[in-house]
TrEMBL record:
Residues 10-112 form the HIT domain. GO terms for molecular function: hydrolase activity. SUPFAM superfamilies: HIT-like. This is Diadenosine tetraphosphate (Ap4A) HIT family hydrolase.
C-alpha cells in the first residue's frame, strides 16, 4: 500500500486511528496520524501499513524508513509545540497492527488558539486515560501547526 487513502488496503489499526481523515504525513511503510484523543498537545500515532502484528514481522525497509520518519517528526513537533520530552509507546493491546503512540510531554500547560492542554502524567508516565477534548476544528489547527514546521 503506497497511500493511506487507498481505503481497501487500509489495515484495521489505521482505521481505528481515524485514517485517512487524521493523516498528518504518509510514507511508503508508515502513516503518521493525529491521535483522536489528545493526551497531550500534538499526540500522534505512527502506524505501519500492511498486515504485520509483530514488530519483528516488519519488512527491513520499514525499519530503515522509521529513521527518516522520526528525524522529520521530532523537530516538527519540537518547533510547533516546544515539548520537554517525547515518549514513543508501542503497546498494541487493543489495536493489533504495529504502531507507536507518540506522546509529547510537557512540564507546563500549553495553549493553542485559546485551548489549554495539560500533561496530567508529568513527570511520570503519560496518562492515556485522560485527554483534552478536541473538535474537528482544533484537530485541524493542531495538524496545520505541525505541518507548518515540517522539514
Amino acid at each position: 500500500m503506497n497511500d493511506c487513502n487507498q481505503h481497501a488496503e487500509m489495515n484495521e489499526t489505521l482505521r481505528a486511528f481515524g485514517a485517512p481523515q487524521s493523516l498528518v504525513r504518509d510514507y511508503r511503510h508508515w502513516s503518521l496520524l493525529l491521535r483522536p484523543q489528545q493526551v497531550t498537545l500534538g499526540s500522534l500515532a505512527l502506524v505501519a501499513k500492511g498486515p504485520a502484528t509483530a514488530f519483528s514481522a516488519l519488512a527491513p525497509d520499514a525499519f530503515s524508513e522509521l529513521s527518516r520518519v522520526t528525524s522529520e517528526l521530532e523537530p516538527a513537533l519540537k518547533q510547533a509545540f516546544a515539548y520537554d520530552k517525547l515518549n514513543y509507546l508501542m503497546l498494541m493491546m487493543v489495536d493489533p497492527h504495529v504502531h507507536f503512540h507518540i506522546i509529547p510531554r510537557y512540564a507546563a500547560m500549553r495553549e493553542l488558539h485559546g485551548h489549554e492542554f495539560t500533561d496530567e502524567g508529568w513527570p511520570g508516565p503519560p496518562r492515556l486515560d485522560i485527554h483534552t477534548h478536541t473538535d474537528g476544528a482544533m484537530k485541524d489547527a493542531i495538524r496545520a501547526e505541525l505541518l507548518r514546521h515540517w522539514p
